[in-house]
Amino acid sequence: MEIKDIMHILADDMKVAVFATVDDEGKPHARHAHIGVANEQGVFFMTSPKTHFYQQLQSNPHVAITAMKEDGYTIQVIRIEGKAQQVGRDQLQTLLAGNPYLEQVYPDAEERSSVQVFHLYQGQGFYHSLTQGHKYRFEFGQSQVNVQEI
To answer: What is the pLDDT of residues 101-148, one digit of tens each?
Structure first.
């Protein structure tokens, strides 16, 4: 399995993940968020500057995500830990063009106009097909991509 296959499963099949961050006191917080794009360069997602999620990412770029998909017999889990950075509002339409979640999560046009895109640009991950026993560790960063079956 290649990283593009893992990221395809994350973005196109799972679509939503639990994102975990910490606040200024080091207390953990988790919430569901939509995976906008996932590829060899990382994971792109969005949030509003009005959220605690946004504030926590600004204070500490470390984030962990996990997602699961069950389809009949097959159960797949993907976990990623890494660093995220804000890539700006101008990337929103390019990265999330045609994405129905943007208008569903932010139905108000004014609120939607403030949404920011973040890029989980460097990280380590783990893919596990629980029912089939396939396990892969992977890494991605600005200049490296590595997948290893375990």
So the answer is: 777 777 777 777 778 889 999 999 999 998 888 999 999 986 656 677
Residue partners of 106: CB distance under 8 A and separation at least 6: 48, 112, 115
Indicate the pLDDT class of residue 97, thresholds 50, 70 and 90: low
Q: Which amino acid is at 88?
A: G
Total Cβ atoms within 10 A of residue 6: 22
- Tokens 């906008």 belong to 36
Provide the whole-model pTM.
0.87
Which stretches of the chain are DSSP H helices?
3-8, 52-59, 92-96, 100-105, 109-112
Q: Nearest Cα to 84, choosing from 117, 111, 106, 129?
A: 117
